[in-house]
TrEMBL record:
Name assigned to this protein: Uncharacterized protein
Span list, region Disordered: 1-44
Polar residues bias spans: 1-15
Source taxon at top rank: Eukaryota
Organism for this UniProt entry: Beta vulgaris subsp. vulgaris
């Protein structure tokens, strides 16, 4: 793997989903305001639908934060600790749930999805399952670029 793949994962802010959400809403509304009226503005819907999003997403946000935290601690333990086996099902379940979610939820959690794929790839590597590791590494990149393409 690349040496700078894991530090970016470690810096993922887990404790403050509220702050992250607030920051992204502010930037989204700023972008909307600066768009000329002639340009169709799909984001306007997203901004006005915020209370609705807020009601459904904290649970998903909290769950993802917990799974990512669990994965981080599993990756910090020595290989023979085998807690990585324990965390695999919860990572896989979170990935499945996100992949099955509606596009706006997937987009909102694109970074988390990418992190989950990346962490699972690292665990697969530790377990010697290189095919799955490569597949998840590619999926991590795809999730990240997909999220960026939709947002920008």
């Amino acid at each position: 793997g690349t040496p700078n793949a894991s530090p970016s994962v470690a810096k993922t802010p887990v404790q403050t989903p509220g702050l992250i959400r607030r920051a992204s809403l502010n930037s989204a509304s700023r972008k909307v305001a600066s768009t000329p009226d002639s340009v169709p503005r799909p984001r306007r819907l997203r901004v006005s639908g915020v209370p609705e999003i807020g009601r459904t997403s904290p649970s998903m946000q909290d769950r993802l934060a917990k799974v990512l935290e669990h994965a981080d601690s599993a990756l910090k333990t020595p290989k023979n600790g085998c807690s990585q086996d324990d965390v695999l099902p919860s990572i896989s379940q979170a990935i499945e749930d996100l992949e099955a979610a509606d596009p706006s939820t997937r987009m909102k959690h694109a970074d988390a999805l990418s992190d989950l794929y990346h962490k699972r790839a690292v665990i697969y590597t530790h377990l010697g399952d290189y095919d799955n590791s490569i597949r998840d590494s590619e999926a991590a990149q795809a999730a990240l670029s997909w999220g960026r393409n939709v947002i920008n």
